[in-house]
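User: Please predict structures.

Assistant: First:
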Amino acid sequence: MPALHYQLHLCDEPQSHENPNTPPTWIVLIHGLFGSLDNLSGLRRAFSQSFNILAVDLPDHGQSSHTQKFSFEQYAQLITELMDGLQIKQAMFVGHSLGGKVAMQIALDHSKLVSRLVVIDIAPVTYAPRHAKVIQGLTSVALDTLSSRAEADTTLQDFIPEASTRQFLLKSLYQQDSKWKWRFNLPILARDYSILSQGLNSPNCFTGPVLFIKGQLSDYLKLEYRPQILALFPNSQSKVVNKTGHWLHAEQPKVCADLIMQFAL
C-alpha cells in the first residue's frame, strides 16, 4: 500500500470541536497536480495559529509513494487512512485544483470526516485536456544525461513559455545518487491524464458547508458548472478573488486566507 508523506503543524491552543458551531480543530491541506505540500505553505502559515494543520503530499507527488494507476477513489482512501492512523476524527479540507477534486471525493465518500470543505479554483466536472504541452515538456527532459536544473529549464522553454510555471515544475526536480529525477510520478500522470481530467461521479452528495473560491482570470470555475456543483454539494457558496488566475492562493494569499478563515468561523 502506498505511503503518504505529510507534515503536522500543531497550534498551542486548538479550537474546541465539541460544539459543531465552533471552528474545526483540524485543517487538511491538499495541493494540486505536479505539486507538493509546500505549495500551500502560505495558507498553512495563515491558519497555524488557530488550527492544527495536516499538509499532505498527494500519492504520485512530492515525497509520497507512487501508485500503479491514478484513481480519485484511491487517493481519497489513502488520505482517510492517514487521518485514521493519526487519530484525526474530522477536519475542514482545503484543496487546490487536483487537490480540490480529491477533497471533494473525500467529502462524497467519507462525509463524516469532513466538517467543511474549501475548493480552490476547480469544479467536479470533466475538463478538456489542458496540460499537453506541460507533459510534453516534462517528458522531453532527458534525465539520464541532464547536467543541471538550468538545462532542464532550457528544454522546458520550448513547451512552456511562462517562467513561473517552469519554476513551479522545477521544484520537483532533484538529484539522488547523482541522477536527476522528478518527484512526481510522471509516467502514471501522463498515461492517466484523461482519468484525472474526468468529473466526479458519485451516488452520494455532501450536505455540509462548501466554499468554492475562483480566481477571476481563471476559467476553471464557470457559471455553467453550477448545476453539477449543486447536485453534489447542495450547501455550497462561491467567492471570487479579483485580479488572480488559477494560482490565486499564491497571487493573493491574504485575501484567499481571509475568505477561508471567515468560512471556517
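Second:
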Amino acid sequence: MEAVVIDGKEIAQKVRRSVAGKVQALKERGINPCLAVILVGEDPASISYVTGKRKALAEAGMLDKSVSLPESVTEDELLKQIADLNADSSVHGILVQLPLPGHISEQKVINAISPEKDVDGFNPVNLGRLMTGEKSFVPCTPGGICVMLREAGVRIDGANVVIVGRSNIVGKPLDLLLSRREFNATVTLCHTGTRNLSDYTKNADIVIAATGHPHTVTRDMVRPGACVIDVGVNRVPDSAKKSGFRLTGDTDFDDLRSVAGFITPVPGGVGPMTIAMLMQNTLEAAENAAVA
C-alpha cells in the first residue's frame, strides 16, 4: 500500500482563501494589509521566490511595496531602507529575501527589522517569544508544516518526531514549535554531528528532512507507516529537462512512497505552505497594527 501524498498546494490554497476573506474584511474597515519584500541582486532562485510571493499578495488583495536593490548596495544602504519601512505605518510586514551578497551581514539585517513587522519570524525577539510560548510570528516553513500535519490527519500529540537539520529557519524553530503543549510531540533534533542517523529516524513516527542535500533520508531509514515531511528543494542536473535540471527533495520520494504512511512531494509539498503562511503572518501583522 502506497503512502498518502500530502497535497501542499491544496492545503495552501485553503489557507490563502481564508486569508483573502479576512483581508477583505479589514479593507472594509479602511485597513489595507501591506507587505514589503526586499530583493537584493538578481539571483534567479531568489527572483523566482519573490515573484511567487508577490503573486500571492495580489491574489490575497494585499498591497505590495516590494523593493529591488542592486547587488552592489551597501549594508548601510540596505539598513536605511529597512529603517524607512519600519517607520512607514502603511507597511505591516517586511521580508528580506535571503541569501544576501557576502558583503552584507544577514543577521544584522534580520535584527534591524521591527519585531512587529518581522513576518518571516527570524528576528531574535520573535524567536525568543516562540521559545517561551508567547504570541509571536512563527517562521513560515515550520508553521506551514504544522498546518499540513493537522490537515492531513497525522497524529502529532505524543508522536516521536525526528527533525534532520538544525537551521535557524526550519530545524530549530520547528523543534520549539512541535514541543509546545498545543502539539505535544517529543522532538529529537539531528544534524551533521549526529552519529548513526538511521538509529533515530527508524524509531520516529514523523521524520522531517531539512538538510539541503538530495536524498539524505532513504527507504531503509524509515519505519513502515511513518510520516515523512520533505523540506528540501534541490536542483540536480537532468539533461532530459529543458532547464537542464530537475527539482528533488531531501528524501528519496519514489522509494519512500511504498513504505511511508504519509509523505510530501517536491515540488508541491512544503513550498506552497511557506508562502501561504507568509500571507497569514502579514494578515496578523495588519490586525495587530489595527488594535495597537
